[in-house]
Specification:
This protein has 340 residues and is of the alpha/beta class. It folds into 2 domains: 167 residues, Medium-chain alcohol dehydrogenases, catalytic domain (Quinone Oxidoreductase, Chain A, domain 1, Alpha-Beta Complex); 135 residues, NAD(P)-binding Rossmann-like Domain (Rossmann fold, 3-Layer(aba) Sandwich). The protein is built from 12 helices and 16 strands. The strands form 3 sheets. Strands 3, 5, 6, 7, 8, 15 and 16 form a 7-stranded mixed β-sheet that branches. The longest helix is centred in the middle third of the chain and has 13 residues. The model has no long low-confidence stretch (mean pLDDT 97).
Length: 340
Amino acid sequence: MKVAAMFGNGQAGLVDKPDPTPKEDIVLVKIHAVPMCTEYKGFKSELESEKFGFGHEAAGEVIEVAQPSSVKIGDRVVVQPQNACGKCSLCLIGEHIHCQNGRNVRQITGSSTGTATFAQYILKQDNLLSPIPDGISYEHAGMACCGLGPTFGAMMQMQVHAHDTILITGLGAVGLGGVVNANYLGARIIGVESHPYRANLAKELGAETVLNPNDENTLKQIMDLTDGSGVDKALDCSGASQAHRLMIDSVRRKGQVCFIGEGGEFPLAASRDMIRKGLVLRGNWHYNLGDYTKLIRVIEQSADQLDKYITHTFPMSRVQEAWEVQTTGECGKVVLDPWT
């Protein structure tokens, strides 16, 4: 099969690798859409040899099973990230992303490939394949991974609703997905982003206003927009310490804050920030799989927004160009087609 590879110094392309083989409850999925995430960050680095095995998001079609399964050949599915055990207490309540007993798919199947999504095929245990309803394209369904998933999970935790004003800091692909989710839920959206392209796209997707984090008076602007009270809820998708501090300072008393973007540390005062403001602080990586049908409803009813959010679609044979676009920041979600 063809897989995407980096060769170093901004060079990339396709290489041939063995087709993976299903075994036990691990089935073979033909990938039709590959949403791109943060893999581009290593694109321009120097490498001593080719590097492959990129990607953790996909939507595709089951084409081979090794035993009777919860999925069948021909099923259209979203490929959930990770390789959780499916048996621990976290997996059983839908929190597979936090499983501490991950399975070694290559060891189980004897395949040297099949665990990454920048490829034509992937191996995945059947319990981590979520059905795609008729009428939803593979490209849109793929947004149920990192496109909409992290912020959707955060908003489910925080119970975001139409009476909320929500702050979203960092409007890369994940943050822009948050704008789509918050808009669907009817919330008022204030964004924070320095990149003009992303700021403008966020407004197109439903943000009321987008502030520049480099302005000295960003916090004052947020307070002015909320009559001095602060936002009801806030989530960060940048991982920047400055954004973390801004969330804490700009959320109202008894408000909620959720950290999604991974990155630096920041000072947090238990008394000033937590006790006296009565804040709830959360961390969120994905979403509970029990909420998948709710997220699919968001996708189904946000088709026009998703067409704006997915700004670029490339054949996987042009993966170098796709990574080049991502490094500019002038894009929303980018999707690859492994078969062109």
